[in-house]
């Protein structure tokens, strides 16, 4: 198997660019750096982390033309679709940065019969989050969990789809330019075996995966065996029912849009 991944535009069949598959020794070093940088990132207040990610949002908007172009080239999508994806992530960043200080704040709870005690609920990061994202929405389905993981004090290692690796690189570049430390958010490239290595590694503490039901079952089994938390968004094909009196032109348009 080649040590390079060629990104192909499915609409034109033209090569968009190439990335190197992350070798095992580099893969391990990336995870080690992620672990070493996590404590310092965690020690920042939620408000401070949110402030950094607000700068990321500014970079996202500033670099939106470049990002939209890369998404469309790698997926074959029209530019308007890539534009909507990009602006949705900008809105998600705005919302989550505003909500995180409240969602993650310490909560006072009733001590029950232990009236001489004080009870609080506090939230702590898992550590290093391994995020495996798909090709169909390569920005929103990667950046959204990255944002939430970082706001919560986790470090992130993202494995983008081998069909959209350049989008993954661009996402990281924007986050780093926005002020996220380089070792706090890193990217690995590869195929199914690289994703499996991220799941199986004892250096990842939580896995977020978006993809097929088949792969999701494998990840759930592996994470269950390791007692490692996993967040799975699993796809599938659903029926589309068109009634006899439906507008067929609109139905066809909806079927094509929904299918791709």
Automatic annotation (TrEMBL):
InterPro entries: Ald_DH/histidinol_DH, Ald_DH_CS_GLU, Ald_DH_N, Aldehyde_DH_dom. SUPFAM superfamilies: ALDH-like. Signal peptide: none annotated. One of its GO terms (molecular function) is oxidoreductase activity. It holds the Pfam family Aldedh. Residues 4-260 form the Aldehyde dehydrogenase domain. This is Aldehyde dehydrogenase domain-containing protein. It comes from marine metagenome. The lineage of its organism: unclassified sequences, metagenomes, ecological metagenomes.
């Amino acid at each position: 198997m080649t040590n390079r991944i060629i990104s192909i535009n499915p609409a034109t069949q033209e090569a968009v660019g190439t990335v190197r598959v992350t070798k095992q020794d580099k893969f391990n070093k990336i995870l080690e750096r992620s672990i070493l940088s996590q404590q310092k990132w965690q020690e920042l207040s939620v408000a401070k982390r949110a402030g950094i990610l607000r700068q990321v949002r500014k970079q996202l908007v500033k670099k939106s033309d470049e990002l939209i172009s890369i998404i469309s080239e790698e997926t074959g999508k029209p530019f308007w679709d890539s534009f909507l994806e990009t602006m949705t992530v900008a809105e998600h960043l705005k919302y989550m940065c505003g909500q995180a200080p409240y969602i993650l704040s310490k909560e006072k709870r009733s001590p029950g019969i232990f009236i001489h005690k004080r009870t609080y609920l506090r939230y702590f990061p898992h550590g290093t989050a391994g995020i495996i994202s798909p090709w169909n929405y390569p920005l929103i389905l990667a950046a959204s969990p990255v944002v939430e993981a970082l706001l919560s004090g986790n470090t992130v290692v993202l494995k983008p789809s081998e069909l959209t690796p350049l989008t993954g690189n661009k996402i990281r570049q924007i986050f780093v330019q926005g002020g996220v430390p380089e070792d706090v958010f890193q990217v690995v490239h590869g195929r199914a075996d690289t994703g499996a290595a991220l799941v199986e590694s004892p250096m990842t503490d939580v896995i977020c995966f978006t993809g097929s039901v088949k792969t999701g079952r494998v990840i759930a089994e592996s994470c269950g065996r390791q007692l490692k938390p996993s967040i799975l968004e699993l796809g599938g094909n659903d029926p589309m029912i068109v009634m006899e009196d439906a507008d067929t032109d609109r139905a066809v348009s909806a079927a094509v849009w929904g299918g791709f």
